[in-house]
Amino acid sequence: MVPMRLVIIGGGILGTAHAVAAIRRGHEVVQLEREPEARGATVRNFGLVWVSGRTDAELALTLRSRELWEEIGGKVPGVGFRPAGSITLVRTPEELAVAEAAAAGETAEARGFTLLEPGEVRALNPALRGKYLAGLHCSTDAAVESRQALPALRAYLTASGRYVFHAGTEARAVTDTGSGATVLDDQGRTHAADLVLHCPGAAHSGLTKELVADLPVRRVRLQMMQTAPLGEPLTTAIADGDSFRYYPGFAGPEVDALTREQAQTATAAEHKMQLLCVQRLHGGLTIGDTHEYTEPFAFDVDEAPYDHLTTVTEELLGRELPPIVRRWAGVYSQSVDPGALVTRAAASDHIRVITGPGGRGMTLGPALGEETADLLGL
C-alpha cells in the first residue's frame, strides 16, 4: 500500500488513537490540537479500560481494544497500562441477582466474570474491608493513566519519524481539493493531506458544524474527584451496584427488577449516579461519577454528589477516605444512534468527522482507530 499523509484535527484520545493506527500502518500523520495539551474528556476520566459492562455486540471490539492497550503499554510504559481487573460490590439481594446472572451468562468466560464471596473479595483486594454481600470480579478490566497516556503516546509516535504534533494550533478551515484536502490553521499555515480526520470531542459547533451540520450525537456532563494517596494498594478498580443500571451489558430481567424494586438514594437518582473508583499510580483514588444530559450545563459543580460518592466509597472500604485534593466536571460526546459505537460522518470524499464514543472513549479508542483504518482502506 502506498503511504498516505493524514491530518488529524483534535489531540484527545480518539484523534490520538487514529494517529496510532495510521502510524502502525506506515502512513504519515500531522496532528493539530487547539490547546497546549488535551483538556477535555480524555483527561477527565477514570482511565478505565472497561470490558465488564459492554453489550454482547460490543464485546469483541472491546476485547480487541483491551488487547491493543496491553500491546501499547508494553511498548510505551508511560501510558501506565495495568491489568488490574475490577470488582463490582453488591449490597442488596436485588444487586446480587444481577451479579449472579452476569456470572452465569454466555459471555461470562470471555469477560472473565467470577462471583466472589466477601472473604474471596478481601483476599483479592485487601483494602475492601467494608460491608457487602459479594463481588463480581471482572479479570479483563484494566486501567491506564489518562493524564499521562497521551504525552507518552505522542513521544512514541514522534520517534517513528512520520508524526508531527502541533500544540496550541486551531484548524480554521478544511477544504476538499478533489485529490485530497487542505487544512488552514490559525497561524496561517496550510497542511496538505490525502485524508483529514476531524476528531472534535464534545466541540459540536464551529468547524465541526461547518463540516457536518447535523450529527447524531449529544453531550453528557459528569462530575468526578480525586483523593490524596490512600496509603495502601487498591488492587482492583471497584464499582457499586448502581453501575448495573448504567452499563448496557447487564441489561435483563434482573436489572429490570433492580430498577423497579430498589430505589437509588435521592442524590444518586437526581444525578444519575454510579460509583466507579480506580487507584492512580501515585496512590490517590479517582472517584465518580454523575450523568447530566440537559443543556445548558452549569459552569460550577454540585457538592451533593461528592458527599454521596464519599459515603459509598467509605462504606465499601470500611475506612475514611484520604482528603479530596481535586474536583472537576467534564463533558463528552455520545452517539445517539443505538447501532453505532461512534459517529463517522463523511464531510466529503477526503474529510471525515469522527466523534461520539460516549464514556467509552478511553476503553475503545485503539480499536476504533483500527476500525476506521480498516473502513477507509488505510
From TrEMBL:
Signal peptide: none annotated. Belongs to the DadA oxidoreductase family. It comes from Nocardia puris. GO terms for cellular component: cytoplasm. The keyword Flavoprotein applies. Keywords: Flavoprotein, Oxidoreductase. Gene3D superfamilies: D-Amino Acid Oxidase, subunit A, domain 2, FAD/NAD(P)-binding domain. Residues 6-375 form the FAD dependent oxidoreductase domain. This is FAD dependent oxidoreductase TIGR03364. InterPro entries: FAD-dep_OxRdtase, FAD-dependent_OxRdtase_HpnW, FAD/NAD-bd_sf. One of its GO terms (molecular function) is oxidoreductase activity. The keyword Cell division does not apply. Its cofactor is FAD. It holds the Pfam family DAO.
